[in-house]
Write a structure and sequence with these properties.
This protein is α+β, with helices and mostly antiparallel strands. Helices cover 25% and strands 43% of the residues. The chain has helices at residues 2-13, 65-71; strands at 24-26, 32-43, 46-55, 60-64, 72-74. A five-stranded antiparallel β-sheet has the order 4-3-2-1-5. A hairpin with a 5-residue loop joins β1 (24-26) and β2 (32-43). α1 (2-13) crosses α2 (65-71). The longest helix has 12 residues, at 2-13. The N and C termini lie far apart (32 Å).
Length: 76
């Protein structure tokens, strides 16, 4: 519960609109990822907004949009 609240607070502090095909950096591993499309995933039996993104090696990942916003920053 506290962790979810943390992500919500961080999300409001960051840019809410993700930019597709722009490079983002993960806060912990400092690797570059590129969001390629929006999608939906199930979280606790509820469909939520999500982001499909890829790594430098073209591996694909999906993450809840709020979590992506909280953990990634646009690369300058």
């Amino acid at each position: 519960m506290v962790i979810n609240l943390f992500f919500v607070i961080i999300s409001f502090m960051k840019e809410k609109n993700l930019k597709l095909h722009q490079e983002y950096i993960h806060y912990k591993n400092l690797k570059t990822y590129i969001p390629i499309d929006f999608c939906k995933i199930q979280k606790d039996d509820i469909w939520v907004d999500a982001v499909l993104y890829k790594a430098d090696d073209n591996s694909l990942y999906v993450r809840e949009k709020e979590e992506f916003i909280a953990k990634f920053s646009i690369k300058n």
